[in-house]
Write a sequence for this structure.
């Protein structure tokens, strides 16, 4: 899966499932501020990532993500690792 496909997929489920305003999804935007998710929403986000991309997410992985670009890069890295395995 190429990065632009990953970004498109992420943006689509953020808009549809988490009601994030499309205009606020910018690579440099702060992930937590943009998504404005509570702890239950983070569980839903993990489930969405796992179902769309087929890899397990560790909750502590979110602690290193600051921007939406970090989130994209994280998913891209995990998808690439899964493809190699």
């Amino acid at each position: 899966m190429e990065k632009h496909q990953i970004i498109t997929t992420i943006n689509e489920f953020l808009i549809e499932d988490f009601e994030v305003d499309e205009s606020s999804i910018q690579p440099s935007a702060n992930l937590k501020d943009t998504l404005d998710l509570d702890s239950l929403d983070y569980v839903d986000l993990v489930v969405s990532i796992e179902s769309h991309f087929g890899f397990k997410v560790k909750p502590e992985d979110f602690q290193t993500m600051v921007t939406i670009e970090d989130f994209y890069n994280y998913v891209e890295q995990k998808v690439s690792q899964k493809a190699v395995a």
In short: The chain has a mean pLDDT of 92. DSSP finds four helices and no strands in the chain. The chain has one domain: 3-80. The radius of gyration is 12 Å.
